[in-house]
Amino acid sequence: MSLQMLLYITLSLWAMRPMAFAVRLSKPNCQEKCGNVTIPYLFGIGLECSANSSFTVSCRNITNPETPFLSSLNLEVLDISMDYSTITLNQPVSPLNCSLEQKGVYLGKSLSGTPFIFSRLYSVLAVLGCNNVVTLLSNGTTTAGGCVAICGYGSNSNDSGCNGVNCCKANIPLGFQAPQVIYRVIDSNNNNSSCGYAFLVDQNWLQNDYRKYTGLRDVNPFDKSFVKAPVVLEWRFPTRSSTGLYCEYRGPGPYYSGWDDQPDYDSLLRQCHCREGFEGNPYVDEGCQDIDECSNSNLNFCQGGCTNTVGFYRCSRSRVKMIFIGFGAGLGALLLLVGPWWSYRVIRKRIKSKRKQKFFKRNGGLLLEQQLSSTQNGVEKTNKLFNSKELEQATDHFNVNRILGRGGQGTVYKGMMSDGRIVAVKKSQKIDEDDLEVFINEVVILSQINHRNVVKLLGCCLETEVPLLVYEFIPNGTLFQHIHEASEEFPLSWEARLRIATEVASAISYLHSAAAVPIYHRDIKSTNILLDDK
Question: Which residues contact 52 (CB under 8 A, 6 or more apart)?
C-alpha cells in the first residue's frame, strides 16, 4: 500500500472521530467512583487526589458497594454535583429533650473553618413533632428564623407539605455554617422524654420522605429508627493565593470556566462553572467540553438540519420560518382543542343542572314551593330557598374546619354569606320519601317562628343530595360548655343562670301556647341551649 493511500485512510478516520470527548471529572490516575457515588475533583479519594484536606474522601468497606465519607466532617457522601456546586451528606439526627424553658442546642457539626456552607437554596430547618417552638440562631446570638409545629391527629393531620401540623420548616440564612437553635415545649402536659427533632435537611427529602418517620396517628409520633437525614452543602473559596483553587481557562479557545460572584453573600467567595453550552468539571485541565446539541434532538430546536458550533448550534432552516410554522401549528392545535373543551363544559353544566333538579324534586322542593306560594301560610318566599353554590362558598365547600357540631339529625357548619351575614348551615340526614311531606310542613312552620329566644330558621336548600337548613348563627356556644368549661371571660353567676332559665321557659311557653301551630321540642338539655353575646 502506498504512503499516500495510508495517509489518506488515516486522515479520513481522524475526520470521522466523535466531536465530543469523554468528560473527565477526577484528576488523572485517581479513582473516580466509590460505590455508586461519582467523586469529581475538587474532591478526591485520598489527599493526593483532592484539592486539599477539606475535600478529601475516604472510601470505606463497611457496606457492599463501598461507602464514601467526607474525611474532614466524617459524614457519609450521598451525592456531589459540579453543576450546582453542592455535596449531599448523610448527617446524624438526635431527638430534642422536652423542656418548658428555652434550651440551646447545636444541630450536627459546625462547618466553621471549612469551605462549606449550608445551602440556603436546597436545605431548610425542619422540625418533626408537635407543640415545639424552635428558633434558628445565626452567629450564636442573632435570630435567623424558626417555626412552630402544632399537633394534629386523624384525617386533619395529613399535611404532606410540612406546613405546621406535626412538621414545620424554616429557611436558613446565607453563608450559614454553625447550626444552633433554641427551643421550648408549649404543652405543659407533655411528659415524654422526647419532643421530636430539629435538624437541617434537604428540601427534596422533606417533601417526599419525611412522613415515613412520623406516625401521625399515634400518640407519640416518632420512630426510633430515624437517626439520619440528608443535608445539602455548597462550597466556596476566597482567593487563588490562599487555597490554590481558582477559575481559569481550561482547554483551547473558549473552553473555560468563569467566576460566579455572590454579591448577596460575599463578593470575595467564588464558584467555578462551565460556560453555557459546555459540560464537565471546571476545576481540571480541559474539564469543560463542548456539548454537541445536534446529537440529541432534546438539546436543540431545529426542525431540519442541525450544525454543531462551539458552545451552541446552528439550524439549516430560517429561525423566523420555524417560529411561524410553530405558531401556525399551535394555533391549529388550539382550535382543535377549543371545540371539545367547550362541548365538555356545556354538557357538564347541563348534567349538573339536571342533577340539582333531581335532588330538588326528591327532597320535596315542589311541595315546598307550593307551600311558600300559598297566601294562607303568610310566609314570604324571598330568602327562603338558597342555592347550593352560595352555601358551598359560604362554608368553604363544607370544610371540616367549619364544623360547629354533630348530632343524630346531621352536621352543622359555620358559614358566611356574600352579604356578610354569619349563619349556621345544617346538613341533614337523608329523608325517606314517606317523610317528605312532614319535613316540608315543619320547614314552613319553623320559618314562621319569630321569638328572640328561639333560633330562627332562615331557609333551606333542597338541590343537594341531602337537604341543607340555614339558621341564624348563635356565637357563644352551648350552655353545656359554659357549665363544664367555665371561663373568667363569661362567668355563670346566679343572676345569669336565673336569666337563662327564665328565657328558656319563655321560649318553651311561646312554642307551646303562642305559636300558630303548637311545637313540642321534646329534647330540652344544656347542649341544645345556645348562648349569644349577651
Answer: 243, 244, 245
In order of 35, 158, 205, 220, 316, the CA distances from 217 in angstroms are 38, 10, 21, 9, 62
Q: Residue 322: in which H helix or E strand, if any?
A: helix 319-362
In a domain, 209, yes or no: yes
- Helices then strands (H, E): number in the chain? 9, 28
- Enumerate the active-site residues: 523
Which of 473, 493, 514 finishes a domain?
Answer: 473
User: In b/e form, how buried is each residue of 347-366, taking b as 16+ CB within 10 angstroms?
Assistant: eeeeeeeeebeebbebbbbe
What nine digits make up the cell of 305? 438540519
For 41-58, what is the mean pLDDT?
92
Count Cα neighbours of 32 within 13 Å in the Cβ-side half-sphere.
Answer: 8
Cα 22 from Cα 287, distance rounded (Å): 10
Label residue 86 by pLDDT band (50, 70, 90): very high
> Among 427, 430, 436, 421, which residue's Cα sits nearest to residue 388?
427
Angle, CA of 235, 236 and 237, to the nearest 5°: 130
How many whole angstroms separate alpha carbon 267 and alpha carbon 403? 55
Per the structure, the complete domain to which residue 416 belongs is given by: 363-473
Residues forming beta bridges with residue 169, ordered by sequence position = 126
Last residue of a domain, one of 235, 263, 288: 235
Q: Is the dihedral of CA 194, 195, 199, 202 positive or negative?
A: positive
Mean pLDDT of 238-262: 46
